[in-house]
Amino acid sequence: MDAGFLVISHPKLTRNMEEMTVINIVIVAVLVTAVAVYLFMRRQKDAVQDEMNRLTLRLTEMELKMEAERTINNMLLASTGSSAVVAGVATMGETGSAGEPIAAGKERKAAAVDLSAMDDKELFEHISRVIRDEELFRWPDFNRAAAMEQFSLSAARIGGAFMRGGGMGMPEFVRNCRLDYACRLMVEQPELSFTEVGEASGYQRTTTFYHDFKARFGMPPAEYRAQQLKQDDATAIQSEQPQGGEPKEQPQEITEPEKNNDVRKQ
Fold first, then answer.
1. Overall fold of domain 114-237
2. Taking the mean position of all CA atoms in its chain, how far away is CA 192?
3. DSSP string, the chain
4. What is the mean pLDDT of residues 55-83?
């Protein structure tokens, strides 16, 4: 018989071929699954990166806006106090505010911001003052991690300064700063909505703003603003009255008989 037409149908060989086929199918399935997992993870990574880029861009825009506001405020202060500054420069010369040399003043300022030499109370006062003066609390993402980057301090150092030096945690301090700013904003600009007030004060969610406000003041923002505006109106009315609270004396009218008596006397 011709060898080219020889068919081998040994049972063991057939079983081996079936096993190889199953193994090949399993390998292909594993490879397909691995590729699908890789593509899914790549898509998730791209989505996270896009979200981080959006947050970074938003934070940068807020920083630029705050810097512009500080620049405008400095310009206004400079324009209103230019005459005082000129007079001070003329009299001070090369000395500091109290006859102190300028170089010594710079050294004193540098020593004042040497955070490593401060105790807990001094560090708390310094950090809290910077947060309030520069309105860092208005950053929606301002937290302990942001403070660590801002002041180049560890989380334990900042947390200890607030707890031992200020008697409160940093989240509570930042929350109080935001609520105080919101109270002032609601009275000074009553046309703003509560959502706008919350966002301007550093809250990302209006529900969180409502919750924190009621927890601290025992009333919702609408009731608080109504009370404050009512008190302001009452204060304005009282300020229009004369000192002492006595009403102004009204001129008396002269009746017709009194006029006749005056004519007879003349």
1. Arc Repressor Mutant, subunit A (1.10.10)
2. 17
3. --GGG-----HHHHHHHHHHHHHHHHHHHHHHHHHHHHHHHHHHHHHHHHHHHHHHHHHHHHHHHHHHHHHHHHHHHHHHSHHHHHHHHHHHTTB-TTS-BHHHHHHHHHHHT-GGG--HHHHHHHHHHHHHHTTGGGSTT-SHHHHHHHHT--HHHHHHIIIIIHSS-HHHHHHHHHHHHHHHHHHH-TTS-HHHHHHHTT-S-HHHHHHHHHHHHSS-HHHHHHHHHHHHHHHHHHHHSPTTSPPPPPPPPPPHHHHHHHHHH-
4. 63
Other CB atoms within 10 Å distance of the CB of residue 168: 14
Predicted TM-score (pTM) of the model is 0.49
Q: How confident is the model at residue 122 (pLDDT cuts 50, 70, 90)?
A: very high
Q: Estimate the crossing angle of helix 144-151 against helix 170-188, to 10 degrees.
A: 100
Contact call for residues 157 and 144 (beta carbons, < 8 A): no
User: Structure tokens of 160?
Assistant: 């200890």
Amino acid identity at 21 = T
Q: Give yes or no for a contact between 124 and 174, defined as CB atoms under 8 angstroms apart.
A: no
Looking up tokens 């947050």 gives: 55
Task: Give the phi and the psi of residue 95 in degrees, each rounded to 5.
Answer: -115, 170
